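Dear support,

I submitted the protein below through the web form. The confirmation email said the job was done, but the results page showed an empty box. After a refresh the structure appeared. I'm attaching both so you can tell me whether what I see now is the final result or a partial one.
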Amino acid sequence: MSSQPAILFVCLGNICRSPLAEGALRAELTARGLGWEVDSAGTGDWHVGNPPDPRAIEEAARRGVDIACLRARQVVPKDFTRFTHIFALDDKNLADLRALAPADGTAHLSLLLDMVPGHEGGSVADPYFGDDSGFARTWDEVSLAARTLVERL
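What the results page shows now:
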């Protein structure tokens, strides 16, 4: 593994929260001139190959970030050695990641918001079943986490 962090964000379907987190961290890294490896995936396979939810694409674009080219994928065993950190967006996905992790996995597994002081143990808001305003809240949460990740790692 590289000495630089390699980050994977994981939610259920990889079309809302995790691609927004990927986009937010990529934007933060670009602004700071850093070249970490960043990706996102889902624990489920329903959306594999699909772009992010149109509302997620719109919210990221509203914030100056293009995530339209991202495609959903499912977590695979090699992710647990390819990435230094795998951040789940909620407790259920963290539990699923722990169950999926192979014995030789080296990635540090945790909740994304565990990195943000005052938000430890929290889940990133899942906007999928709500209205467009939920995507703005999710963007705010993952953007805060992205800034904190860069400062802490």
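Response: this is the final, complete result; the empty box was a page-load delay. The mean pLDDT is 96.
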